[in-house]
Amino acid sequence: MVVLRLRRGREIPGDASPAAAAATYAGLVALSDRDELRAALDPDDDATRALLEPLLAEQEHAVVAAALSGRPERRQRSVKRAIFAAAREADESLFLGGSGVLSDEQVCRFATALGETPVRDSLWLAVDQRRLDGRVLWREIARRVPSPYDAAPLFLFGWASWRDGDGVSASIAVERALTSDPGYTAAELLGGALMHGLDPRRTPRLRMPRSA
Known about the structure:
The chain has 11 helices and no strands. It is mostly helical. It has one domain. The protein is globular. The model is unreliable at 1-30 (pLDDT under 50).
């Protein structure tokens, strides 16, 4: 497994390293090893996640109903705006020391929407172009929903981590996304980038395909 930019990640002995001090000052927690990075993405217990299944089913019904009524794009635009706003609020909350937590209804609405390729791709593009980070939100959704709903937020968390030079977190997220949904092609793409050691600083940014 390839880990990116390890030349800058050499361990600094002692509890008061400059990296840890800087992270603390920024309101972050410095994770000391791979086990702690894994734990940061550990899901809630199975029973807790299973409690969301009825709400997820309701959201799936809403998706079908919108499609049958000829309004899928309208619903997608609405939920995309909500996810963008929640992601930015979560990122801001982290740096301000807040602890915003989504309601179960929000988690299920967002997780269901991320399962739709147009919604996922618009957020993927925003993350890749640095218009959005969203890792706080992606992690919260991934930890709270059952498989395979966690695959999309895990992938987005991994992509944002990779673009930020955090290959370790990206590889953990890819592994878990593919465990949840072995056929998740976007996660396979990111896994390939990690496997071949692509430099996230030099890899071209994503672009929307031009309309015919």
